[in-house]
Every structure is written in structure tokens, then in C-alpha cells.
Design a protein that fits this description.
This is DUF2913 family protein. It comes from Shewanella youngdeokensis. The chain is of the alpha+beta class and 214 residues long. It contains seven helices and six strands; from the N terminus they run H-H-H-H-H-E-E-H-E-E-E-H-E.
Length: 214
Amino acid sequence: MSDINYNQAILMFANAGLAALAESAATSSSVKTPAGESHFLCSWMVAALKKRTFPKLIADDLTFWIRQARSMGAAAELKLLLQKISQQYTFIADKQQGLAASLQAMLAELESKGWLVITDQEVTKKLKLSSDGNASLIISDEQFSQCIDGDELIKPITLYVRAPEAAFAEVAYKHHLLLSPGNKKTSLIKHHKTYRIWPRNEQPAMTLLQPLAD
């Protein structure tokens, strides 16, 4: 599994966990409660980590989720986490082409909703943007020209965004774009978070997850 990417590894992991949980629940009533599900999945993750069942790419994720489950119990919602991962990474698996076109479509939609969208300004140092309270998205003009080739994204591209994270992530997902979690510490623009999108949607770590579809 040396050539597997993060998306493939995390999807494989989530589907295996859900399958193991379903198999156990079919034979044991104790696994059918939230507390029972959490205990089973935590134990299953511990075993998977010790046996190195899954690629090292997701080892840090497993360690974090095990720690959460041990401290939070059922409130860690491990089953829901795996369901979200399975849904989102299955949906995105065949959406690897035309991501620059997807980005352009997303920017057009945000502008139509009243967002301030800037892609023609240099962003190389700390800046402050006055947007009169409107949501805003900025991409440095250098990145916008160098990371895009026609309809394709050829390098990771950084977006500086000021908006409710869940709402922004929903729009990005609608346009088939996986987002990295927002980061205030790395942002060059005051009151904005840094997000990244990657060529072929191959984020090297967990993307922002969407609520389960009805």
C-alpha cells in the first residue's frame, strides 16, 4: 500500500470500521447503543493502530480519535465520523479533473451572493482588508496565475476567507472541492482564515467534513 494516497487510505479505513461495527452489532446487542458503538470502534482503532492495518498516512488521525474516544466516550461520535468520511470521500473519489474550472464556478457563485472576491492583488505580507462586513475571499494574483492551467489546478492554492466556515465548506463541496481546515495562524490577512485546495483533490490530511446527507 506504499503508493496509496490519503484520500484512498482514509476511505478504506472508514469503510472497514463501519463494516466491522455492523458485523459486531449483528451478533451482540451491546454494540447497538452509542456507548457500545464508541467502545467497539475505539478498541478496533487501537488494534488497527497496533497492527498497522492501515497506511501510516492516517496514523495521526487514529491516535487523535482514540484519545478523543477515551476522554469523551460516546460524545466522540466515532460512528458518525466514519459515516461522514465514507460519504464525502466516496463522493469525491471520481472528482479529480477540472478543479480550476470548479474553483472559478465557486468564485462566481460567491460573488453573486455578495461576497467580496479578489484574485488580482499581491498577497505576500500581512494585510488588513475592509469588506464592510461582507464575506470575503482573496487569492494572491501570483498563485492564481501560477497554480492554474486552463481548467486544471496544477499546484496547491491558498485561499484567505472571512465567512462562517461551515457555509463556505458547503459551497466548496457543492463545487467538488475538498478544503483543508481553516487556519488563522497562517493567514496573511487579518480576520481571515487560510484554506488550501489541492490538485486532483488530493489533500494530504483530513478535509473539512460535511453533515451527512439525508
